[in-house]
Design a protein that fits this description.
The chain is of the alpha+beta class and 499 residues long. It is built from eleven helices and 23 strands. The protein has helices spanning 19-33, 266-275, 289-299, 302-313, 350-358, 375-392, 397-406, 427-444, 446-459, 467-478, 483-490, and strands at 46-47, 65-77, 82-93, 97-103, 108-114, 117-118, 120-124, 127-131, 141-150, 155-156, 162-167, 172-175, 195-203, 208-211, 214-220, 226-236, 243-246, 249-255, 281-287, 321-326, 342-344, 366-368, 463-465. Residues 4-24, 26-41 and 256-278 have low confidence and may be disordered.
């Protein structure tokens, strides 16, 4: 994530394993939360834990199950702000369950079923508890369906920024890091529980309705409204889900060919869209009319930037790509929402675009096990900026390192241990996180570092990983103990005497 220095505070989010790896992360958190069961002769379940005891958001997420898929059907009226939704949640029980929770802020639940049978439901704050007619056996797959309605309200984060369902003059923009997704759909809203998604949006005629992944359908309903369907085939943490509704101008292309040098003018940028991206990757960008022309050239560079990043980080991990650019005033930061990051116009520059696209590998494909591991998102995405300027603007990464070393704000706390949720998007997570990676590069050499840079997102592709996972992986590739490096740069409280 990225928020800016003036009215846009510098805040980059994507705090921004295989399915088995995700399940392991959930199991560890659920054990911390005390989820257990006593299965007797039949299924004698216990309630799943309400919260996974994340270090910064202990009530976020829920124990007892692992979501496999969300099918969300949403109808939105921009005039009233009313959202009508149905969420079909396919999950697997990780214990014998008598009841389980979903995170949902506000909104009114009108009904719920589990495997087609009516389920009792009740609310307590942001917790929605469902009690199925029959207990669910450990390991069984089940489908919970929740219908709900209301006017979603945004969440104000500990650092003062807003997230969730943000209302605009003619539509809405939904962003979710770290808690905002629960303002518009019920779910297991901790990054440890990733799932695939189908999101269907029905809006008034004349408006576009955009989301993550590949657009699979667009049709006009009998009442004149338009329904658009989106499919995300790869697992996604709920904080990376997005919806953008409004009078957007869109551009699509199929990326093919090999990477070239970055575009430096509008003509080159336009040509790059069809000539410089990974093969067979659909790229869809959208911009509100007032910022469409001004953002067109840079949006056209996305295929080329992705192709160059794929050379450094390995194959692009998703089946779609793109960006959404909004007018200033709705959103105070850029966010790496999966496959289609969102940007306020003032934050849509090449540096930020490089950062948010790098998150598709670091944060979106490899997702933090807990929010304490956020530096793995932001440190890597910041270092991706340093690598880009080193390769294409003749500014060595060491120059960025020296500048970051000199800034007192970067030494407020260790990147792997923010003191509170309020500090998750502070400079040490970004700049000092990138400094850790540069010291690793200097310690192990460019060839080994490049192997780590490609191997890390390959090893934990579409999974969850922790700081301990990363340090162990780096040492295994380097073939040596790196404890002193981690002690000083990753966990150290003080500023070293020398950079």
């Amino acid at each position: 994530m990225y928020v800016y220095e003036d009215e846009y505070v510098t805040r980059r989010r994507t705090p921004r394993r295989t399915r088995a790896g995700a399940a392991a992360a959930l199991l560890a958190l659920a054990l911390l939360a005390g989820g257990c069961t006593d299965a007797g002769g039949g299924v004698r379940g216990a309630p799943g834990a309400a919260g996974l005891r994340d270090p910064y958001f202990p009530k976020l997420g829920n124990g007892g199950y692992d979501v496999r898929h969300y099918a969300l059907s949403l109808a939105y009226d921009p005039g009233t702000g009313r959202l009508d939704g149905t969420a079909e949640i396919t999950a697997r029980a990780t214990q014998d369950l008598s009841a389980f929770n979903l995170d949902l802020a506000g909104l009114t639940v009108s009904g719920a079923t589990v495997d087609g049978a009516p389920a009792a439901h009740n609310r307590a704050g942001d917790e929605l508890t469902l009690r199925p007619r029959e207990d669910i056996r450990d390991g069984a797959e089940f489908k919970a369906t929740v219908t709900y309605t209301g006017v979603p309200e945004p969440i104000t984060d500990a650092d003062g920024s807003e997230e969730g369902w943000l209302r605009t003059d003619d539509g809405a923009l939904a962003v979710g890091e770290p808690e905002g997704s629960m303002t518009w759909f019920p779910g297991n809203h901790h990054p440890a529980d990733k799932a695939t998604y189908d999101i269907t949006l029905t809006v008034p005629a004349g408006l576009e309705a955009l989301s993550n992944g590949v657009r699979t359908d667009r049709r006009t309903e009998g009442d004149g409204r338009v329904t658009t369907a989106w499919h995300s085939a790869e697992p996604m943490a709920s904080y990376l889900a997005t919806v953008a509704i409004g009078r957007y101008e869109t551009s699509t292309s199929t990326a093919t060919g090999k990477p070239t040098a970055p575009a430096t003018d509008k003509a080159t940028a336009s040509a790059s869209e069809s000539a410089t991206a990974p093969r067979s990757l659909p790229v869809l960008t959208a911009a509100e009319p007032s910022v469409a022309a001004g953002s067109a050239a840079l949006r056209g560079e996305i295929p080329g930037i992705l192709a160059r990043q794929a050379e450094r980080f390995g194959p692009y991990p998703f089946s779609a790509a793109g960006a959404i650019v909004t007018e200033d005033g709705t959103l105070g930061y850029a966010l790496e929402t999966q496959t289609r990051p969102v940007f306020p116009a003032a934050a849509f520059d090449r540096t930020t675009l490089v950062h948010e696209l790098a998150h598709q590998w670091f944060g979106n494909s490899v997702t933090p096990a807990t929010w304490r591991d956020l530096w793995l998102n932001e440190g890597f995405a910041t270092y991706a900026e340093w690598l880009y300027t080193e390769e294409y603007e003749d500014v060595p990464a060491r120059t960025h390192f020296a500048r970051a070393f000199a800034q007192d704000a970067n030494w407020a706390f260790p990147p792997a241990a923010p003191p509170s949720a309020e500090n998750l998007f502070d400079p040490p997570v970004y700049q000092r996180g990138a400094m850790v990676l540069h010291k690793l590069r200097e310690t192990v050499g460019d060839a080994t570092f490049d192997e780590i840079l490609r191997g890390w997102p390959e090893k934990y592709r579409h999974a969850n990983a922790s700081t301990a996972d990363f340090t162990a992986y780096a040492e295994s590739v380097a073939g040596k103990d790196l404890d002193e490096l981690w002690k000083v740069w990753l966990y150290g409280d003080g500023k070293p005497a020398k950079p």
